[in-house]
Amino acid sequence: MKTPPVQSLSISQLLFATFGATVFATAAASDDIGQTVELDSLQIASTATRTERLVKELPVRTEIIPSSLFNSAGTRDLGAAIEYLPGVRSEANCQNCGTAEIKMLGLGSGYNQLLFDSQPLFSGLAAVYGIEQIPTAFVDRIEIIKGGASSLYGPGAVSGVINILPKEPVKTGGKFDLSVEAMDGGSLWSSSSVNDWSSPEGDLALSVYGQYNVGDSIDLNGDGFSEITEKEFYTIGANAWHYPTETGKLSYNYSYSWEERRGGDRFDLAPHESQIAEQLEHNWHRGGVSWEQSNGAGGVYQLGASFSYVDRQSYYGGVGDTALPGQTGYEPESYADAIESSRLLYGFSDTMRYYLDSIFSQQLGEHYLTVGAQYQIDQLFDEKRDERGNSLKSDGSVAAFAGEDPIADDDFTNGSLFVQDEWMPAPNLTVIGGIRADKHSKLDKWIVSPRTAIRYSSNADWTWRGSIATGFRAPEIFDEDFHIEILDDPTRTRNSPDLVEESSTSYSGGFVWTPASMENRLQAEMEVFHTEIRDTFNVSDIVLFDADGSAYKRRVNAGGSSVTGFETNVAYQLAPKLRAAIGATFVDARFNEAQEALPGIFESRYLESPRWTGVAQLSYENDALFDVFLGVVYTGSMIAPQEVEGILNRDTDSFFVVDLTFTKHMDLNIANRDLHFDLTAGIKNLFDQRQKDLTSGPNRDTTYFYGPRFPRSALAKATLSW
């Protein structure tokens, strides 16, 4: 039964009120006042302007996910942590391999920019599979800019920027945790470790971290084919900070991640011997260095360089509905013939990204002027292979040498110049004006993107914001093109030969209300946004075929489209250790003219884009008793294509996911060493809200996969810190 969005949000408010009253009574009865949780408006952020500012003083809308949320909610990676943010969704895209992307304000992952310490995080392959490969153990906070008003970031950051900031140690210490999630007959084990060191002089700090995850495959509908992949993953990395002078800072970071995942059936067989298999092995190297130098006169110079390299060995295919040995209808000759085709469906891909930026900022009276240059290189390669690792030509024959007949072998560059002026003519007024000029290697001309934002505080209670921003996306190979889909044949996405750049103009405006009479314990905000996109990229759901029989979809320019909506959020510090927040987002994303979503079926709305989403949180902190976290994520009905059946589901179920965790804190002293021990227990997706109409069998439609990514699970976690 489908629940209307308004009714679901009312239920979340009722649940908040009931549960909140219980916890509030417990808090009031305790003498331990705990630690006050600051509202976003009173926290410091640096992403929007590359300078530290109170969030309420920024003209560019900024939100913060603190590390305290990761701990209280029991989240272990970026994909899980981001789900509690209003207007942002972590969406599953594939029933076989578990790919996921971050969507913001109704737009897909191609419209937001993921950063690590203000430098691009992902290359192509990592962006498809990587949001589960960023552990939260070493993260201090995540800053989110909604909208593209800041000129400091790339032209494609239309819906916003997500910046992951590492925790810089101020003392020597560390932590180790071990957790398990049990769900639907399977389990996911995770362990992470962080070791911090800070020199007595405070001029050098080092943080070394690692994480290991291993999880079972899970078949949610009992058809013998997995919906949650079998997965093994580990990452190791280090972040370092060096202060060689009183006004200079060097920062370094490096990490290596390895992952192997497999979905489908018959995990005891080689991938090409099963009916359906998607097997992926990733190696991901990422690193960077940055130098920040103050001139002592209100000026700062920043120089940064980073790289990201990913290689992937993959398989997607199988013998389809051909009966396997031991199954009814098994025929050895038919099975052998099917294997002859399926063994040719292995692949190898790699991507490399280099990034350089140079930024100088200077205080000039009422103005803070920033000028800079950025340069990015992306190299991409993809080829077919057989089960022995031999490179294949497009016709399936063995190539004479690796890379002889690749599916993709290209590189892209983008050079940028920008200037931004942050002008504060009065304490209650800030105006940001900026302009970018970008030259992409796939375009003949420079593209100029002006952007502006304004903040005005009419009094101590009210802050108003508005912005206008322009941007574009060039016709290159995109992250999602590396993900293979299946419609009887392995299916990729290609650009149309006449594809041109997509351009956009975004408008936003809203307010933040923090009444001084309530001592800044209440924060209410509302934002209205509208984005117009010209020559919108759209991937046809019609499968085309090459002369050799390879199936593909085509990315085309689909005319204009627009995304219009609003977001409203309320956060309230009920008591020094009790905080509640609730938010709702409405998005209407549609093409100006209806597009052919499936053969003969036209639709103007964006697919898999719910109009209503909502989040709610209730956090209670009490060191003497326990901490409680209640999280609510609402996903409204959307339009989802069933490509194999040729059906467009225009009214999917809506989902109301509730997470509840409890954490007990204990201080220990072992061998005269002070230790802190946390024990967390909880239930994720308490009411087991998930898609009920999953497709089944060897010819299932793996892209017909929407809603919550995981079923109900029981969580247990132990953390030891020192």
Which helices and strands, and how do they pair?
Layout: H1 5-29, E1 44-45, E2 53-54, E3 62-66, H2 67-73, H3 78-81, E4 88-92, E5 100-104, E6 112-116, E7 119-120, H4 124-129, E8 139-146, E9 160-166, E10 173-183, E11 186-198, E12 204-215, E13 230-245, E14 248-264, E15 277-294, E16 299-317, H5 332-342, E17 346-364, E18 367-385, E19 408-426, E20 429-440, E21 447-457, E22 462-473, E23 485-487, E24 489-495, E25 502-513, E26 522-534, E27 537-539, E28 544-545, E29 551-557, E30 561-575, E31 578-598, E32 601-605, E33 612-620, E34 627-635, E35 640-642, E36 647-649, E37 655-670, E38 673-684, E39 713-721
Give a count of the beta strands, DSSP E runs of length 2 or more. 39
What is the rounded Rg?
26 Å
Quickly count the helices.
5
Beta-strand residue percentage: over 45%
Structural class: mainly beta
Helix fraction, binned, reads under 10%
Describe this structure in words.
The protein is mainly beta and about 725 residues long. The protein is about 5% helix and about 55% strand. The strands form six sheets. It has a 22-stranded antiparallel beta barrel. Strands 3-8-9-6-7 form a five-stranded mixed β-sheet. Strands 23, 24, 27, 28 and 29 form a five-stranded mixed β-sheet that branches. The protein is globular and about 80 Å long. About 45% of the residues are buried. Mean pLDDT is about 85; it is low at about 1-35.
